[in-house]
Each structure stands twice: as C-alpha cells, then as structure tokens.
C-alpha cells in the first residue's frame, strides 16, 4: 500500500458523476437569456429551456416514473424532443427515442422490450403509434405532442389525438424549480436506442451519463464549436440521440434551430436568418443543399460546418459544398458508439489538395475522437492488428468511454460485440500508414467473387465519378460460377441520361475487371429516414 | 433491480480510465509532424515529444520506480519539464514539481514528506537542491538537467553538477517504444503540488488522472483554444502543474513555447516569431508586457488571449492590454482545484462596456469551469448559501471532479477542507445576482475594524485607480481602539510621484471613511515567483 492509497478517498467535494445534465445547468446559470431554442415563431432562452426540462422531470416523477424506468418519445426535431433529452434523465429515467419511420410492429416490440411506462408522441405519428399500442403488451401512459409550430406547408398532416393528455398539460403538472436527480452513478443509463437491425429483432443500445457528458467535449472539439454556435437540426434526434448534440450544445451555450422536415428552402432560410454555424447529416442532405433551385437558395456570410457521416462524401458533392460556403467534416461511428466517434481530422497541409486528391483524403473515416480511447483494425479471429498498409482489410474495433454499456436484455449479443475487450463494429476497413482508418464495407456488404473480396464502396465510388449519377448502390448478386458478382443500382440526376453500357465502360476505365458491375439497374434507390441506402431492400431484389 | 442494472457492466471495450496521457498519445498519432515544443533553437514534433516521454517513463521504470512512487523535479519551463509531466505518470509514478524559489529547508521537507525516489534538477537550481539534499532524510537518485538552450543573457548562472547522471543519459537508458502504463484507476494520483503555506508545514495537494484529463477539456473551452494553439510558457509549470496546460495542449495539438525567464523582449519575440495565441500569468506579467520599452516591443497581427488569475486585473492594465492586442480572460482557482476552476465567462453584451464598467465586470471571478460541478458562496458555520445579492460575504466553496483528492498524509487537513461535502477555499467572496462570484478577500486578509469587515481588495482597487500606483497591498494593522485598521503598502510607477496625503485624499473620495488606510507606506512590495503579493511578509512589518 503506497502513500497515495491512504486517506485520499472520494467524497462529495471531490467526486461527482459526469452527466450532460450538468452542461445544461451551467448554460442556464451563465447565459440565462441566451436563445437556446428556435422553432418556427418560438424562442426559448436557456433559463426557460432548463426550467421546462426540470418541470417535465418533475411531472414524470409525479406520474410515478422511478429511476431506471423507460420513457419513450416519438418526436420530430422539436423543442419537446430537446426537453425530453434533459427532462427524462433529470428524474433518473431512461429516454427511448423511437425512429419515426418505423412500422407499428417494430414500435410495439420496442415499447415492450424496454417496458416503457410513458410514451410521448407527436401528432404526425399518432396513427402508427395507435396501431403499435394495440399490438404492444405494455400499456404506457400516452401523451400527445401537438406542435403549435407545425409548419403550414406540411408534407404530412397531424393525426388524431390518441393519448390521455397533451404534452403541455403534462409539463404543467410539474415544478419548474424541481431539483433534478444527479445520477447515482455516472454509469447509470441515460438513453436507449434500438439499432435498425435488418434481420431479427432490433437490439437496444444503452448509453450512460458518463459517455453522454464526454461526448459534449468530443463533439465540441471535433466540430470546432466555439462559444454560442448555432446548430441546425437536419439530423434526426432519434438517430443515436442526434449524435449527442442535444446535450452537446449546452457546453458552448449554443442555439438549437429545430426543423421538422429537411427541405432546402427551410435550411437556407435558417442559415441566412439565424446565422447557423453547424449542421449534421447524411450526404443526401448535402445534395439537397447543393441541388436546390436558385429561388430557394439564400446568401450567407458565415462559414457553415457540415458534419457528415454514413458514407464518404463524393468528390463532386465536396466541391459543390465548398463553393456554396460549407466546410465539410467527415465523421464516422455507430449507434453503439454514441454516434460519431471517429473524425477525419483535417490537416493544414491538405488544404492545398484539389479535386480527386482532396476527396480521397476527405473520404477516409479518420482517427478517434478525443474522448474515445482507442480505434483500430483487427483480424476478428486472431484479434491481431492488421498492418497499417492501407490495403489489408480487417474489422474496425473501438474501445473507450463512448462505447455503449451493451445491448439491453441481450447478454449474448453484448458478449459477442465485446469479444476480446474491443467493440466489434461489423465494419470492414483498412488502417493507413498515417493511422487513419478507411472503411471498405460493412461485413455483410462485401462481395466475394471468385474468392476475391470486392468492396462495394469502391465500386460505388467509381460510379459516383460519372457526372450523371446521383446515387449508386452496389450489392452482391448470387452467381453460379463466381459465387457472387457486383450488381449496381443507379439513380440518375434529374434531366441527365446515360446508358448501362456507358456506365460499364466508365467503370472498366477505373476498376479492375472483376470489380466492375456485371449488371446495372436504373431505379429509385430506397433510403432510410437518415439518408442511408437500404441495401437489404436492394438485396431482396437480386434473388 | 431494474432492467438497466443487469448484464450491462464495465469491460475493457466500454470503460477506460480518463487520463491526460491519452491526449498526448492521440496528438502524436494524428499530428506526428506538428511542432509540439519550441525552446530556443530546439524544435520537437509530437512524435518526438511522445517518444521521449515514453523513453523517460521506461528509464524511470528501469531505475526501479514503481507505480505510486514519487519522482520530483525542480525545473524551469523547459522541454524536460514537459516530458516529466507525461513520462513520470506514464510509468505509474507521481510527479512532484518543486517551486524553484523555495529555500533548502522547505525543499528537504517536500522530498522527505513525498518519499521522493528520484529528483531531476535544473543546473540553475543545483545549489539550493544540493543544500536541501544534505538536510533531507531521503536519498533520492539525483539527475542533473543541463539545458543546452540555457539563454546567453542569463539573469542567473548554471550551478554545479550535483547528480549521479545527466538527464539525457537517463532518458537514453529508456525505450522510446515503451508501452506506457494506463493508470489502474482514473483516481490514481498523477501529481503532487505543495501549497506555499505561510504558516506550518506545506500541505501536499494530490491530483488524479481523472481531473487532469477533464482539465484538458475545461481549459480548452475556458481559454477558447481552437486547433493548433501556440502557448507561451510565462506561467511556471511548477505552479499547479502550470494550471494543467502541459497536459491540455495535446487536446488541440498545440505548440508549447518554453521560456526560462519572463522578460518583455523574449515574450514579444515569441509572440511575433512563433505566432503565440495564448499565455497565462499573474497581472505582473501583463504590466511587464505593457510597460516594456519600445525597443523590446514587436508588432503582431493575431489576437493573443492572456489568461490571468491571482488578482483582478486593474482597469488601466486591462485597457493597456486591449490596446496592445491582447484579450484578457480572468480565471480563478487554487492549488486544490487544479489551478483555474472558475472563469469570468465574458458576455457579448458586455463588449459595449468601457473603462471602469468594463474593468468592474472583468474583475469578478465568475462562474464554474464546465468540468467543475458546482461553485458557491456559503456561511462556513451553517453551510447555508449566502444570498445572491453581491454584498453578503461568505466563503467560496467548490465541488466536483477538479477538486484535489486531498492532502497527502494529512487526513485532518483533508477532512477540514472537505467539511460538509464541499471544498472550503479559505477565500471570502460574494455571489452576485447573476450567479457570478467575486472575491472579497482571503479569510486571513479581511480587516476587521471597529466590528466592520473591510475588504483589503476593495481598498487596493481604490489605490490602483490612482495613476501613479504600480502595486498596492493593504493589510490589517493591530490597533488598540479599532482592533485593526487598514495599512497600505504602495509601490509607485517608475518616474511617478505622489504623497501619502494625496493618496489618502484619493481614497476618501472613493471609499467610506472607515475603509480608508490609516497609514500609507511607500516600499517595494515583496512578491512570489508567480507575481502574488506576499502579504504575510508585509504583515510581519506591521507589528
């Protein structure tokens, strides 16, 4: 026993659980009058945001919610969603954010599996929720959220009221001065996110207060957020808790600009009118911005940082974004890693790069977040690191404090994911000489043709280099002779034309023969609500 | 037992101890070629800085240093000091940085009390260290640091070699590829700093890896550090581990610019030649910059952030700093809080303030760091919060993860400091209506005259408003009638004159009669190496 092992223990003065709730408390203390939320005509200061979050927490507690119980929400990017991210954990409960594009059966599964006690549902989704509630075994208290700033130019309509009370009535039951519960341990669960699981039941990914608090610092550093950023909500908050940005912004007392639907005009208006400095989204959101009709575009003077993930930004899109005044930062992560945990940390010397060289550099996923402890590429069988040669494909592995606690009620899946003391991402990639990783494919998306591994991403990148291609998705097609062959689905830009033969020729000029698609199908490509291509849908079309 | 309490435990994949060593590892991985250290003619990249730190750790381990043992250093702001901040904890040891202005008896006490096993000493201080070693009971291995970039224009000389080997020879014994030891727990000690304790023996303040890692984020946010800051070392690194900036800079891959002696010319040269963006220091450093002869000043285009603490920046100094291109951020903290834990978080609306209003706003200590959990002002007897009225004086209290583990081998002092679950700072202050604290005095510096509390800071501020006053220090003088009365020591600016009567008149125009000094003494005011006025020396002169 050394001299530092005695009489130097934890106490309330020198140890407190890490929690993102503390970030909001500080922002409200220091910048009470600063605008925290903009939504349509609504403005909420940090004092109001904090008070309403506490009031919600108090109301939930008065409705019987105990620490460690689940409160589910099915909400758009609205003030209620931001309040839920704070108010639910403030009473010790766990927030389940349901993907608003899911069908009733999966929603019912999530409600049952998480033993949801209260569900708050936006009227836009009350139809599917009503159906889910008939399927579910649990009987949660149902609260309607009737957004007073529901846009007039709606691509969707408000559904019926299906709950016992409305959200504002629930909030009104609480005490805005409620002393929120510090988590008893920073390891306590703060939220639950189900993976979209293409086969079998979804898995419930559990986040803790420690990780969510650290993500506040990690996001601020990765996104280069100074004091008072203005953040536009193009990324759904139900997606990995909006990459933890609902909690992150309070670290720098930023302004949330809510957005129910991602449309070019609304985005440009927010950027020009509210001085947006940051937004996040899949590459599809970038395309929407660049390809917007001139009448919907607006001039703005600030540089806007666009954090993208899900797929490497294609070269043409990158160039278009620069011309339009956006800095693109490429991030990568999974639901299991609190959203982004890897950043394409951009180096000064790369500023001189142009065109394909710049895009190639930007396409790499990069290096660990400051708050992630380690990131590597390994052979999952031997758990040995692959050589940093940029060529040897292995599985991308994560380790650190922004890796999930595990899958809820699924110790087998958790054990499998954490095999050997690393989180197995299921993504295949290479480690470059300079320590940057680059994804080559999802494990299930790799195409094995004649014994050779073909990266579907590599083939897609070749297709994207054709000026007529809007979206490309390559999947494996079963083949008697080769085992599998690459099948390409292509969506063209409006008004552009190209034949399959021309595209084949284009690919042969850029790829080894065996990697070229054997077949090209022109079709509208199915995407998730977050803009990810749904390859499993395409894969069904191949058989 | 709730559903979130089962099968969601910690493992190597999802839990790693927080440590600032991880920040350096990342900077070396991502920016290996970026300059980490500038010292005279020397340049070290992050790859080199990381390798040398590991090499030092390896050498220490080979010399028998075990985890939890103390390695002491008595070093200036040199590369060796930066390496020690990383290399010592990398082998699990604890870094004791000895104040280079201490006398042999106190140094001997620190070596014995910390059971130091190895001491690394700069030749500038080998004389006093040699003496200390004859007084100390412990017999550590002594290593000389012979700085090859010891400036030619030295106000001090190199002393004799007193050790068994030189620092470079020690480092050469190690393996630069050494796999450094992750702390077994983030609560493990990383460093030891003795308070300067004016009475009795110094107390050894123990920091842990968790706090030092979090300070990386807290400092970056408080100081507004973007990517690649350039940090000038005017603050001694032996002072609260340089407010943790030796560890912090790696978070943003910044450049350390070393500086052995704080002189205007060297500072301006560094700012102009190396593009310094940040520096820290007591108000005396600001005066040195502003009052430098024209020949020593240099033009520079960047805005330089100057983080100051120890005393509120006087109005004239603030104005002078703005004119000279510096942004002053006012921080506050104690050795027990890892250096700064409070920041005068500056609001946009205050930018319009000028002169005394601006200085008054800047003089307040402010609000908690993002990584500090709570900060308040309480009546230490009742442990009740004082009203937020800007007037009721109480004791400033801290709570959170950047409060020390405690005092080494001093459970009584630790218990006293942590009484009631808060760290008692010993500083007296008020809570303003807007949640900002303002110091009124050290508990022992308050003057109680005729039953009325007089803040010595308030009297000093009045004196500082006189254009001839360079430094003012007010202490209590025992008085038969009043108990105590304020006695002012004043140091005038070079070439300026003012009489005691004129200053008395100046004070009476600004202060209540009972607060005015009863006596004014013109004298050179004794200061610590960090520019703090040594009131205990002045106090001895009053009796």
List the helices and strands and how they pair.
Two copies of one chain form a homodimer.
Chain A: H1 21-30, E1 35-39, E2 42-45, H2 46-62, E3 70-74, H3 79-90, E4 94-97, H4 104-113, E5 118-122, H5 126-135, E6 141-145, E7 165-166, H6 167-172, E8 189-194, E9 204-208, H7 209-222, E10 230-232, H8 240-243, H9 245-248, E11 255-257, H10 264-274, E12 278-281, H11 283-290, E13 304-308, H12 315-323, E14 326-334, E15 339-343, H13 355-363, E16 367-368, E17 372-379, E18 384-385, E19 394-400, E20 406-407, H14 411-417, E21 423-431, E22 437-442, E23 447-449, E24 452-454, H15 456-464, E25 469-479, E26 483-492, H16 500-508, E27 519-522, H17 535-540
Parallel strand pairs in A: 1-11, 3-4, 3-5, 4-8, 5-6, 6-7, 10-11, 10-12, 12-13, 13-14, 26-27
Antiparallel strand pairs in A: 1-2, 8-9, 9-20, 14-15, 15-16, 17-18, 17-19, 19-21, 21-22, 23-24, 25-26
Helix pairs in contact in A: 1-2, 2-3, 4-5, 12-13
Question: What would you note in describing this structure?
Answer:
- The structure is a homodimer of 543-residue chains.
- With 543 residues, chain A is an alpha/beta fold.
- Among the domains of chain A are: 13-211, Rossmann fold; 446-543, GMP Synthetase, Chain A, domain 3 (2-Layer Sandwich), CATH 3.30.300.
- Helix content of chain A is 29%, strand content 25%.
- A nine-stranded mixed sheet of chain A has the order 2-1-11-10-12-13-14-15-16, with helices on both faces. An eight-stranded mixed sheet of chain A has the order 7-6-5-3-4-8-9-20, sandwiched between helices.
- In chain A, strand 14 and strand 15 form a beta hairpin.
- In chain A, helix 4 (104-113) crosses helix 5 and helix 12 packs across helix 13.
- The N and C termini of chain A lie far apart (66 Å).
- The mean pLDDT of chain A is 93.
- The interface between A and B is large, with 72 and 71 residues.
């Amino acid at each position: 026993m050394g001299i530092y092992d005695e009489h130097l223990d934890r106490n309330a003065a020198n140890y407190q659980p890490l929690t993102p709730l503390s970030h909001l408390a500080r922002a409200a203390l220091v910048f009470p009058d600063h605008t925290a939320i903009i939504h349509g005509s609504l403005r909420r200061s940090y004092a109001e945001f904090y008070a309403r979050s506490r009031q919600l927490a108090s109301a939930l507690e008065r409705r019987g919610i105990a620490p460690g119980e689940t409160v589910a929400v099915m909400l758009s990017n609205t003030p209620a969603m931001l309040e839920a991210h704070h108010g639910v954990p403030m009473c010790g409960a766990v927030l389940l954010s349901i993907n608003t594009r899911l069908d009733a059966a999966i929603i019912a599964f999530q409600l049952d599996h998480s033993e949801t006690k209260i569900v708050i549902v936006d009227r836009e989704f009350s139809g599917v929720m009503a159906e889910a509630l008939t399927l579910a075994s649990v009987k949660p208290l149902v609260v309607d959220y009737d957004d007073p700033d529901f846009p007039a130019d709606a691509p969707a309509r408000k559904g019926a009221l299906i709950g016992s009370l409305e959200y504002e009535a629930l909030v009104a039951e609480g005490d805005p001065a409620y002393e929120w519960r510090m988590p008893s341990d920073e390891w306590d669960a703060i939220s639950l996110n189900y993976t979209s699981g293409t086969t079998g039941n979804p898995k419930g990914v559990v986040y803790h207060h420690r990780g969510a608090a650290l993500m506040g610092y990690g996001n601020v550093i990765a996104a280069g957020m100074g004091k008072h950023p203005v953040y536009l909500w193009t990324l759904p908050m139900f997606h990995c808790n909006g990459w933890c940005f609902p909690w992150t912004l309070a670290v720098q007392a930023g302004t949330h600009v809510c957005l129910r639907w991602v449309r070019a005009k609304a985005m440009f208006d927010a950027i020009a009118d509210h001085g947006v400095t940051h937004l996040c989204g899949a590459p599809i959101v970038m395309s929407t911005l660049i390809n917007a009709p001139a009448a919907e575009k607006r001039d703005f003077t600030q540089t806007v940082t666009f954090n993208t993930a899900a797929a490497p930004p294609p070269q043409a899109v990158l160039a278009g974004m620069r011309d339009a005044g956006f800095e693109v930062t490429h991030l990568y992560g999974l639901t299991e890693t609190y959203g982004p945990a890897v950043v394409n940390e951009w180096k000064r010397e790369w500023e001189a790069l142009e065109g394909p060289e710049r895009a190639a550099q930007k396409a790499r996923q990069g290096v660990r977040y400051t708050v992630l402890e380690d990131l590597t590429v390994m052979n999952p069988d031997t758990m040995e690191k692959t050589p940093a040669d940029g060529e040897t494909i292995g599985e991308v592995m994560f380790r650190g404090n922004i890796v999930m606690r595990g899958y809820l009620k699924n110790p087998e899946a958790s054990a499998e994911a954490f095999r050997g003391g690393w989180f197995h991402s299921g993504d295949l990639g290479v480690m470059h000489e300079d320590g940057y990783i680059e994804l080559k494919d999802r494990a299930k998306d790799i195409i094995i043709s004649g014994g050779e591994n073909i990266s579907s991403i590599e083939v897609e990148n070749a297709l994207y280099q054709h000026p007529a291609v809007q979206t490309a998705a390559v999947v494996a097609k079963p083949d008697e002779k080769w085992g599998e062959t690459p099948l390409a689905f292509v969506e063209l830009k409006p008004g552009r034309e190209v034949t399959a033969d021309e595209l084949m020729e284009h690919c042969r000029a850029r790829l080894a023969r065996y990697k070229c698609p054997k077949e090209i199908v022109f079709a509208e490509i199915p995407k998730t609500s977050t803009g990810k291509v749904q390859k499993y849908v395409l894969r069904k079309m191949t058989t």
